[in-house]
Amino acid sequence: MNQQPKHEEIDIIQFFTAFGNMFTGLFRWFFNIFKWLIFILVDAILYVRKHYIVLGTGLLIGLIYAFFTKENISTYYGEAILRTNYNAQLVLQEKVNMLNDFISKQDYDNLGKALNISTKQASNLSNFSLQPVSNDIFLLEDYEAYLIKKDTAVHKFIEYKKYKKNIRNNDDLSRYWKLIITSFSPDTFNHLNQNLINLFNSDSLIEKRKQLYLSFLKIKKQNYLKSLQDIDTMRKVFDKAWLLSNSKAAGQGVNLMLSNEKASVGAPEEAYNLFEERKKSLDNLEKTIRQINLYSDAVVFLNSYPDSGIKQLNVLGNKFIKFGLTGFLLALSVLLLIDFNKFLNKYEQQKNNQTE
Questions:
Q1: Is the pLDDT of residue 286 over 70?
Q2: Are 333 and 75 in contact (CB under 8 A)?
Q3: What is the DSSP letter of 51?
Q4: DSSP string over 281-329
Q5: What are the Cα distances from residue 21, in Å, to 15, 17, 57?
């Protein structure tokens, strides 16, 4: 009866002993690594102190070169969000790749012609970066527009989660993109907004798609306007009939009912709800006008580039830091190569002594 608690006490003591040993070993391991790093740091400081003349000379040469060079390594950037219509994603990517190809080949004449800017302004551009944007706000708008084009019978088979996953797994299906432009001059962005819009909307096939769809939307708009005009005419007829019925002094009067089929006097049909129909037509007209505005271009800029580029925060963008550090590292590389050569010579001498 009394032996079981003793065994439990022994097991608990062994457990805490093993846990303490493990913790001590882990602490010792971290301490050894820290001590090793301290030794490396001290050795590095001693090495720099030993060769400070050579390293300082390399640093000084780099700073002098930076002082006299005219190289401009400060970069500026601007970014804009784009929405593509009429499946213009591939066209957008092709245009951006074309611009980057001009930059890589230093073909600033064609780059300037493509963007309708001067060759000097084009030479300041350094990169065009196109990235898909897939936040929930944009995806929900796309999802609603996608369902509008589908038959209502298939709506239940298209869930938002599946749609979202499909878009994120296929960048080419994304309609929203971020275009980041980097330049060596902050003034390059002044003329890019409208010029990029013209460039990205210059594809002939996309232009045909746009004209066909906008023509269809404009016909819908005219039909809704005509429907509203007809409803207003019917309301005027109803108002006159109501005034006429109330002006009768005798008991029978005139009872004008507006039905779905026709307008008749004293007809038993259910009244045609003009207010409801007018509200529906107004809603449809508003949606159509919104669609016309949304699809006015194949590539739409949701925001403009700033008039002056934003300077990128980059430590190596400072030419004194860049060239000074380069000179220091080159001097350090030469010293390490010399020390390595001494080590090889010493190793070779020891090997020759052993063979003798």
A1: yes
A2: no
A3: T
A4: HHHHHHHHHHHHHHTSSSEEESSPPPSSPEEP--GGGSHHHHHHHHHHH
A5: 10, 6, 52
Burial of 38 (0-12, 13-18, 19+ CB in 10 A): exposed
By the 8 A CB rule, do 132 and 174 touch?
Answer: yes
97: which 2 tokens?
């790749």
Unique residue bearing structure tokens 């063979």:
355
Distance, CA of 177 to CA of 49 (rounded, Å): 53
**Which two tokens mark 170?**
């296929």
Other C-beta atoms closer than 10 Å to the C-beta of 286 total 11
pLDDT (tens digit, 9 = 90+) per residue, 236-267? 777 777 777 766 544 554 444 444 444 444 44
pLDDT tier at 173 (50, 70, 90 boundaries)?
low
Cβ neighbours of residue 248 under 8 Å, at least 6 residues apart?
A: 254
pLDDT attached to residue 105: 92
pTM comes to 0.58
Tokens standing for 164? 């979202």
**How far, in Å, CA of 99 to CA of 122, rounded?**
10
Q: Closest Cα partner for 185 from 130, 129, 122, 128?
A: 122
Q: Using an 8 Å Cβ cutoff, are 272 and 256 in contact?
A: no
Per residue in 287-308, pLDDT tens? 888 888 888 888 888 888 888 8
Is residue 38 classed as helix, strand or coil in its secondary structure?
helix
